[in-house]
């Protein structure tokens, strides 16, 4: 058999092009697989059988395609956390916001459009709490031919912080909904899926990071826990934060840090200590330190190579007290953008849309005080006193096809009532929220300043707020009530960090700015899944602009739809008005 030289050359060339083509393609098969942790085995949902799920490796500016096959028994959606997806809310993922869930047996081809993001992001399920096991890292390298704004690290390691529940996660949520209380807490935290040495039946599988003295490691750290902010530290070593949420920062050297669910950090670890075994450890940061919470500690081991007798057990790092708000706020408040020639910032300076959102915990009465929340009441949560209720048809579909009666457009710019938001003794009647499915409509290109104000209703709490479709500049943060006269004078408009998830401090405020230049439907929510489930979420609709680039793309052909579930009586008659509906299309 003769094989022509051209065929061989062609094969070599095709390999070459396979590796540098701009549109990598991934296959995600959602399926149930048994996993054993903490001495007990349960079936968990995974992608391709992996827990944590597969890492996506991409370059800045890539567009990638992921075919998601749902071979599990639950409705599911997948979200690409921190990817702005310009004009393409269709494959963003949050259930009942931009799509109906992918039903068991169904498939959805999701396009992920990267633009300015560079560093670390992640992907996770965005339906119920399925992200407890369905999550993975997304590593975004600089464009080919460009480099990091720091010396090239010798190796890069994803560090996914997560949690483990002995109970089935769907049962946890069902129980929580039924009882109206807080439900169960996680039983362990994990590093790369492993609880570590301090838990039963876990020691043999503890994650080990082998290092060589003199080398520098880029840790790509993601907090994928369902419910907890985490303190993190490595014994004997300071680490240097150089990026967060796929945007570079001025280097920040610390002996420990705090990371909220949804946040991602790029951290340099220099292996510059005497060869030994050192624990890396994480535990909860929570202001509810007297209440119930997962107070366990997860560990992994940093192991130097070479001949030596390691300390046994490995050296343990200092971690602050569970409720050390000062330590947490000091760290988060110290982030600064690089803001240099190669990484210029673009903070909106002229604001035309001012928004003020109160973030509150709420309670509502239950018949015969039968719920397991405080005083037999049921827990809810709200933004501007509206506890968000998921619609049956997703908002994007209702918006695009002008389906009436799905959502209202009256999400308020300001809370209905101004009171001392952070007072110690707020009257109980204020804890009752309004239920609603309201959106805030933004004109294309509007410049938005949004101040989050944490309230002390029921109990103050930190809230890691996450916005889909945008990165925003964090221009100010403080404790107590926001002062409209004084606080804006102290804004950082020079080198504010660019984020997609940020901790609004307990009984404090935080101000962000962004330009609404991404047409579509974009979810905003607390990244504690409990708070999100209770209604601490809201939706922005950014209208189409004039030019073709300023318009939403067309829906994908295999878009999971809830449309058929609801009979449409009138074709176009809609309560939203033609000004809001971008296109009138009759759905087939
Ligand atoms: C799955 O999603 C469909 C479409 O929204 C919905 O009708 C159905 O009730 C969901 N099933 C479950 C178990 O949530
Ligand atoms: C919480 O989890 C435990 C097992 O870990 C289980 O026995 C219990 O029923 C669960 N629910 C509640 C409300 O505690
Ligand atoms: C580690 O960083 C802290 C600041 O967070 C500094 O005070 C300390 O000296 C540093 N330690 C080492 C060993 O460099
Ligand atoms: C964690 O909480 C349990 C009971 O809730 C308590 O017995 C234990 O001492 C706590 N552990 C730590 C490390 O605080
Ligand atoms: C942390 O909790 C302890 C009790 O567990 C309490 O004494 C202390 O005041 C709390 N600290 C803060 C900063 O709230
Ligand atoms: C953090 O703490 C240091 C040392 O106490 C202080 O100088 C700095 O201003 C604090 N930064 C923030 C943002 O709180
Ligand atoms: C609001 O409440 C806080 C906490 O109790 C208190 O320190 C502050 O003085 C109050 N502010 C006003 C304007 O009453
Ligand atoms: C929220 O709305 C409910 C219902 O209208 C009202 O009873 C409650 O006082 C409001 N609370 C606040 C903080 O605005
Ligand atoms: C939106 O803003 C961009 C950048 O500032 C500008 O180039 C563009 O013309 C604006 N478009 C509209 C419709 O205002
Ligand atoms: Cu929250």
From TrEMBL:
Cofactor binding annotation: Binds 4 Cu cations per monomer.
Keyword Secreted: yes
Gene3D superfamilies: Cupredoxins - blue copper proteins
Main EC class the enzyme belongs to: oxidoreductase
One Gene Ontology cellular component annotation held by this UniProt entry: apoplast
Domain Plastocyanin-like, first and last residues per copy: 30-143, 156-307, 435-545
Reported cofactor(s): Cu cation
Reactions catalysed: 4 hydroquinone + O2 = 4 benzosemiquinone + 2 H2O
Pfam families the record matches: Cu-oxidase, Cu-oxidase_2, Cu-oxidase_3
EC number(s) recorded for this UniProt protein: 1.10.3.2
A GO molecular function held by the record: copper ion binding
UniProt keywords, alphabetically: Apoplast, Copper, Glycoprotein, Lignin degradation, Metal-binding, Oxidoreductase, Repeat, Secreted, Signal
UniProt key word Metal-binding: yes
CDD domains xref list: CuRO_1_LCC_plant, CuRO_2_LCC_plant, CuRO_3_LCC_plant
GO biological process, one term: lignin catabolic process
Localisation per UniProt entry: Secreted, Extracellular space, Apoplast
Leader sequence residues: 1-22
Function recorded in the entry: Lignin degradation and detoxification of lignin-derived products.
The family this protein is said to belong to: Belongs to the multicopper oxidase family.
PANTHER family: LACCASE-15, MULTI-COPPER OXIDASE
NCBIfam families: laccase (TIGR03389)
Identification of the protein by name: Laccase
Organism lineage string: Eukaryota, Viridiplantae, Streptophyta, Embryophyta, Tracheophyta
């Amino acid at each position: 058999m003769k094989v022509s030289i051209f065929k061989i050359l062609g094969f070599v060339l095709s390999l070459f092009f396979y590796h540098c083509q701009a549109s990598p393609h991934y296959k995600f098969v959602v399926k149930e697989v048994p996993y054993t942790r903490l001495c007990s085995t349960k079936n968990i949902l995974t992608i391709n059988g992996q827990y944590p799920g597969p890492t996506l490796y991409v370059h800045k500016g890539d567009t990638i395609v992921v075919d998601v096959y749902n071979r599990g028994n639950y409705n599911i959606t997948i979200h690409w956390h921190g990817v702005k997806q310009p004009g393409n809310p269709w494959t963003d993922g949050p259930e009942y916001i931009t799509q109906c869930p992918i039903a068991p047996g169904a498939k959805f081809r999701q396009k992920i459009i990267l633009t300015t993001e560079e560093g670390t992001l992640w992907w996770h399920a965005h339906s119920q709490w399925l992200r407890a096991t369905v999550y993975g890292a997304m590593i975004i390298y600089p464009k080919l031919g460009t480099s990091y704004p720091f010396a090239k690290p010798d190796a890069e390691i994803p560090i996914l912080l997560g949690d483990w529940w002995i109970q089935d996660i769907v049962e946890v949520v069902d129980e929580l909904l039924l009882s109206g209380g807080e439900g169960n807490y996680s039983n362990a935290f994990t590093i790369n899926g492993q609880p570590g040495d301090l838990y039963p039946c876990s020691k043999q599988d503890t994650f080990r990071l082998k290092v060589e003295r003199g080398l520098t490691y880029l840790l790509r750290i993601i907090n994928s826990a369902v419910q907890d902010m985490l303190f993190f530290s490595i014994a004997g070593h300071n680490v240097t934060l150089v990026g967060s949420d796929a945007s570079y920062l001025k280097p920040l050297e610390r002996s420990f840090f705090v990371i909220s669910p949804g946040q991602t950090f790029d951290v340099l670890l220099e292996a510059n200590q005497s060869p030994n075994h050192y624990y890396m450890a994480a535990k909860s940061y929570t202001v509810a330190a007297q209440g119930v919470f997962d107070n366990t500690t997860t560990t992994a081991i940093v192991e130097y190579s070479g001949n030596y007798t390691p300390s046994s057990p490995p050296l343990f790092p200092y971690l602050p007290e569970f409720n050390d708000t000062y330590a947490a706020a000091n760290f988060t408040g110290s982030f600064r953008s690089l803001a240099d020639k190669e990484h210029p910032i673009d903070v909106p300076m002229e604001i035309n849309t001012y928004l003020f959102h109160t973030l509150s915990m709420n309670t509502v009465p239950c018949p015969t005080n039968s719920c397991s929340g405080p005083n037999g009441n049921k827990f809810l949560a709200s933004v501007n006193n509206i506890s968000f209720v998921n619609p049956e048809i997703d908002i994007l579909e209702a918006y695009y096809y002008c389906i009436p009666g799905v959502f209202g457009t009256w999400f308020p710019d300001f809370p209905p009532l101004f009171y001392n938001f952070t007072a110690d003794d707020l009257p109980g009647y204020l804890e009752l929220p309004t239920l609603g499915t309201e959106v805030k409509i933004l004109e294309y290109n509007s410049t938005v300043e949004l101040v989050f104000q944490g309230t002390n209703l029921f109990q103050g709490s930190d809230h890691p707020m996450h916005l889909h479709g945008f990165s925003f500049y964090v221009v100010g943060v403080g404790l107590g009530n926001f002062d409209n006269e004084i606080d804006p004078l102290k804004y950082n408009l020079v080198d504010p960090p660019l984020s997609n998830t940020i901790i609004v401090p307990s009984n404090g405020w935080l101000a962000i700015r962004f330009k609404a230049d991404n047409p579509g439907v974009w979810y905003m929510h607390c990244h504690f899944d409990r708070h999100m489930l209770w209604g601490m979420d809201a939706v922005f609709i950014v209208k189409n602009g004039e030019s073709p680039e300023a318009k939403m793309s067309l829906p994908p052909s295999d878009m999971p739809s809830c449309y058929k579930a609801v009979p449409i009586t009138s074709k176009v008659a809609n309560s939203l008005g033609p000004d809001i509906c971008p296109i009138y299309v009759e759905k087939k």
